[in-house]
Specification:
Elements: E1 4-8, E2 14-15, E3 30-34, E4 67-70, H1 73-78, E5 83-91, E6 96-97, H2 104-117, E7 123-126, H3 130-142, E8 146-151, H4 152-155, E9 159-160, E10 168-173, H5 178-192, E11 195-196, H6 203-220, E12 226-230, H7 235-250, E13 259-265, H8 270-276, H9 284-287, H10 316-322, E14 326-330, H11 332-346, H12 352-367, E15 376-383, H13 385-391, E16 395-396, E17 401-403, H14 409-414
Parallel strand pairs: 5-15, 7-8, 7-11, 8-10, 10-17, 12-13, 12-15, 13-14
Antiparallel strand pairs: 1-2, 1-3, 4-5, 5-6, 9-16
Helix pairs in contact: 2-3, 2-6, 6-7, 11-12
The protein binds zinc ion (ZN).
Length: 417
Amino acid sequence: MGKFRLLCVEGGEVLEGGFVLSCGTHRGLLRSIYSRRRLIPGAHPGVWRFIDWLPVEKPSSYACKPVTYRSEALADELGLTNLYIVFNGYWPEHGTRMETCTFKELESAVTVRYAQESGVERLVVASAGNTAKAFAAAATQERFPVVLLVPKKCLCGVFLPRYDRRYVKTVMITDGDYSDSIAIAKRLARIKGFTYEGGARNVARRDGLGTVLLDATLEIGRLPRHYFQAVGSGTGAIAAYEAALRLRRDGRFGGRLPKLHLAQNLPVAPMYSAWREGRREILPERDIPRAENVLDLIYARVLSNRYPPYGIAGGVYDALRATQGEMYGVKNSEAKRARALFARLEGVDILPAAGVAVAALLQAVERGSIRRHDITLLNITGGGSARLRKDKKLHRLKEDYTLSRHVADRELEELEL
Ligand SMILES: [Zn+2]
C-alpha cells in the first residue's frame, strides 16, 4: 500500500488516491487512511511537520501552522484550569504568522499541493470570504491557477497582503449567498472542464484543517476532553473528528474522542436547529430562515452555508454522535461581546466566527457542560487581522467578473479564465 488510501465511509470500500470527491456509488464522504499509524512530527516547516498524515508526497513552500497555548486570562475569567487555545492567524509575538488570518490557509495549502500532485490544472473554489482569501494566497505562492466564486456581500471584507491576478481569477456573485456560489462553482467547473475543489468532500481540505487538532494534541500531550469551534459547513469539525480518530489509533494520546462543541450564528443555524430536534436531515422550511439573502442576518458571514454536509455518512451529524457532541446557537450580540472579551483578555483581535466559538464556550461554562479541570480546547479559527494591519499593507481581492445567481450556461462558457 502507498502512503494513504481513501475509505468510503458509507460503503466501506477502499480506493487508491487521486483527486476524487466520492466513490461514485455512495453519497457519503471519503476519508483518508494513512499507512503510518503513529504521528511522528517531521523536520519540515509549518504544517508539513505533519506530512505523514497529509495526502501529499512533498511539502510546498508554505511554512505556517497554528500555535497552541494554555490560556491564563480567559481561563481565569471562566474558572477553568485547563483551557488551551489553538490560534490560527497573525500573531508574531506568539509565534504564528498566518497572513490570511484564518485556518482556511491550512486547507488551501494542502489542497493546492494535492491538486498539483494529482495532475489537476486549475481549481474552481466557492467561498464566503475566508476560503477565497486562503486560496488566493496559496495559488499566488504556488503559481497555481484558481477561480474563486464569492458573493458580493462577502467579497467586500476580503483583504490580504498580496495576490497575483495571473493565477487568481475572482468571480463575484452580485445577488447570491454562499450556497449560490457553490452551485455556480460546480456548473462552471463542468462547463469549462475545470476541477471543482469539492469543499468538505475534499480529503486534502479536511486533513489540512485536521492539523489544528494534531498541533494542539502534541502541545497538550493528550487528546483534549472538549473541542469548541464555530461551524458554517462543518468541514473543520469533521476534520477534528477524523484527526481524533487517527490520534486514538496512534495509542499515545488517550482513548477517548474529544467531545465536539459546535456553534452556529443565529438565525442561520440549520445544523443547530436539526440537531436540537434529533434529526439527521436538515429541513429547509424548518431549519433555514426565510430571507432574501441570509448574509444580511448574521454577524459571522463565513458561517452562512444553508446546505452543509450534515446528514451524509461521515458528516457533521455522525461526528457529533460519535463524540456525544453538542451544538450551540449564538446570537449576533453574544458573538460581538465574546469577541471583545477575548481581545481584552488574551490580547489579540479575533474574527467574528471565532467570537461565535468563544460565545459557545461561555454558554457551556454557564450551563455546567464542562468541568473546571477538564482539558478544553478552543479553536480560534481566525484572528490577528488588526495586528496584521500594523505590519502590512492589505489589498482587497478584486473581482475579474460579475455574475448574477441566475447566470445562464452560455455566459459561464464565455468567461475568459
Ligand atoms: Zn462507496
